[in-house]
Design brief:
With 271 residues, the protein is an alpha/beta fold. It is built from eleven helices and nine strands.
Amino acid sequence: MTLFEALTVAKQQIDRLDARLLLQYATGCSHTDLLARPETPVIAPAYAQFSEWVARRAAGEPLAYLIGEAEFRGRVFQVSPAVLIPRPETDILIELAREKLQGLEAPKVLDLGTGSGIVAISLALECPAAQIIAVDVENEAIFVARNNAGRLGANVDFRQGNWFAPVAGEQFDLIVSNPPYVAAGDPHLALNGLPFEPQVALTDGADGLSCIRHIIAHAAAHLKPGGWLLFEHGYDQGQVSRNLLSAAGFKAAFTHPDLAGIDRVSGAYFQ
Ligand code: GLN
């Protein structure tokens, strides 16, 4: 079996780019190797790995879980099925957080439900003056996130626990979160590889707003005067998020769309 033959067979079963990437990861060959020396034989263990991955990909398993990594904001993060795969729409949460941190001297930031750590780690690397604490209820997520921070050289204080429990008595200049916000029974949960992702990170098992409600209800006690709360949410949760923020006494509630023009992040400050 040559590189060319392996790729040809796989491309009949899965997306051609996925097939190429999986072959590169299985064999250690670069894209250039594939183009320049397609007749190179694929050794048996590499072919066995490749075939297994192609079959799993064909069954819907996300590429990121097969190769164990995914990119976010130009950095490579390790992922496992214990954490969500980074989504490009989370970019806007980072951009807005950076905007709120601008001009603050040594801001304290809290990331709730950090998962693989992409939000906390991106902020730590892009706002080096900030002190970042990141919380997740899942030990396995904390393990993945700590590992990512170590590999990327980010200084983040990771703590295991339920939402605000690990930061009792502490106050922040900024609280950010990408909580589970998909409603239970949303048909979306059955599509695009989502069944392979941790359901606890995707859905609250209720109307999609229970984690957002919990965060809003407890955020004020953990914000310094004028501190901001920013969180990601679903396409139809902008208005209700602003209403919840205003009802809880937050000021200047706003919603920002993602790059696809979909309502994605809401936020407000507490005086
Ligand atoms: N944006 C993700 C999705 O629609 C959901 C992420 C989340 O629940 N935090 O697949």
